[in-house]
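Researcher: We plan to redesign the surface later, but first we want a full-length starting point. Tokens attached.
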């Protein structure tokens, strides 16, 4: 059961970020637009140079090749990237996992072209692709931003059940207070250049 630990991480204007996210725990991050939420996730995923240290259990990020680290510490950005023409080509070969019902796709979605996908379809498939890679940590950047209310609830529930089942530590960037209340075990808010426990959070 891995723990994710940040030790005095600093990136951009954000300084001194230290925390432990336990296995199966969801820590929500909020803050004004441009306050550095996405960059912090990128630092934890080793996608941007930063100060301080990040550990997965006792393994330090700096001691692992970046591509190995990113496979284990999986960031799902708000705007997902796709490289091939078809959806299925982005999934691990021989992927046996059934398509989660909560995502609302027919089985033939694997043959759909990327160009036809709506932004909400892209977002849901990016989440499914991330989980299909069996990461040990999830970093979610506004994972339901392009979804309507009912689909957001369905995707949240599916994510939470996977997070509990796989016991992944999770950093989840969110703006919607109602969503934060539903999913967060802890809620941290960016104030000036620091992360602080949000008012009303336990
Ligand atoms: N590589 C970079 N070099 C310098 N500044 C950057 C870099 N990437 C992002 N920034 C700046 O850092 C700030 C924080 O960006 P970030 O994307 O983390 O914001 P955010 O809190 O996620 O905002 P939003 O809620 O709008 O998505 C922004 O002012 C952005 O322009």
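Model: Full-length starting sequence:
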């Amino acid at each position: 059961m891995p723990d994710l630990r940040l030790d005095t991480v600093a990136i951009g204007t954000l300084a001194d970020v230290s925390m432990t996210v336990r296995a199966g725990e969801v820590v929500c991050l909020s803050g004004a637009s441009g306050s550095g939420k996405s960059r912090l996730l990128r630092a934890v995923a080793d996608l941007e140079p930063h100060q301080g240290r990040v550990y997965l259990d006792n393994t330090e990020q700096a001691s692992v090749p970046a591509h190995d680290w990113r496979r284990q510490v999986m960031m799902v950005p708000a705007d997902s990237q796709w490289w091939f023409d078809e959806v299925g080509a982005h999934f691990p070969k021989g992927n046996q996992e059934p398509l989660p019902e909560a995502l609302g796709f027919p089985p033939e979605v694997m043959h759909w072209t990327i160009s036809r996908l709506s932004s909400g379809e892209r977002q849901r498939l990016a989440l499914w692709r991330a989980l299909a890679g069996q990461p040990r940590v999830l970093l979610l950047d506004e994972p339901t931003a392009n979804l309507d209310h009912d689909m957001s609830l369905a995707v949240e529930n599916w994510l939470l059940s996977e997070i509990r089942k796989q016991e992944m530590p999770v950093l989840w960037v969110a703006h919607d207070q109602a969503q934060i209340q539903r999913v967060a075990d802890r809620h941290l808010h960016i104030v000036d250049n620091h992360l602080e426990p949000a008012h009303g959070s336990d």
